[in-house]
Amino acid sequence: MPEVISLGEPMVEFCATSRGPLKSIEFFERGWGGDVSNVIVAVSRLGHRSGIMCRIGNDEFGECFLEMWKSEGVDTSHVIVESNAFTAVYFISIREDGGHEFTYYRANSAASHFSPEDLDLNYISEARILHVSGITQAISSSCREATFKAIEAARESNVLVSYDPNIRLKLWSLNLAKAIVSYTIGMVDFVLLTGDEAKLITGIDNVRDAALKILEFGPKVVVLKLGGEGCLVATSSDVVRAPAYRVEIIDTTGAGDAFDAAFIVGILENMSLQRIAYFANIAAALKCRGRGAVKPLPYRWEVDKVLNKLEESYKNFKS
To answer: Which terminus, N or C, of the chain has the lesser number of Cβ atoms within 10 Å?
Structure first.
């Protein structure tokens, strides 16, 4: 059985092969996306069993996802293929600074039809960690209800819950996003969000103070993903920082998802919070070396190689 499961929205990705605005791009590379799918694939590449619960269209893009997940070792036993519905797609244009812009075609997709009735509560109860996303909550009311039901089922079975708010104001209003995200944070064990999201929720500029404020909502651990400044991890007893690992950035799409996956793996393996912070920063950075969300996701040996080098350098420095 999978150790880590999630529910949400898979999307076929078309990533520009050169930088510039979408209207000027002639060629795209097809890939796969959707935040929870990215996380689940990354968990598998980092050496742990994973599975996904979702709906896909009865189309060739849906078939592509099934083939990709199976090739990555992801359990697809709870993927529903919906007739007369389509698998969503999105386009990525890459700015000159390596950042990205998204254009989505997702309204009324098969994924948005996922509902509480689609959940297998036994499947959830047998996992070690359930990972949920604010994007899943935003794409439809039925997905939002399914997310809450999945969290409740996990809590009843003592399954840990991780949550990435992944706030996208194109999907819902600011007030609704803040209300739902704040409420959800109080239901989960680990929340992983950006510095900007922490400020949006708390109104606090200082990242340490914002993280401590979010701890008051109820989670055990608050993680702030700070891009080039690394990350901050806060608990009721400690706050740790870890610097970013530097690479030549090609595309940052999915870096946060790679981070989430590595954090989850660190929890599964009982790593210290400091080690998890470095491990997750490295995974996120290595993902940025290539285009698209899934293809450049690092394998475990790649992350371990960098982490071991950093630890050795630290020992030499200390000596």
So the answer is: C
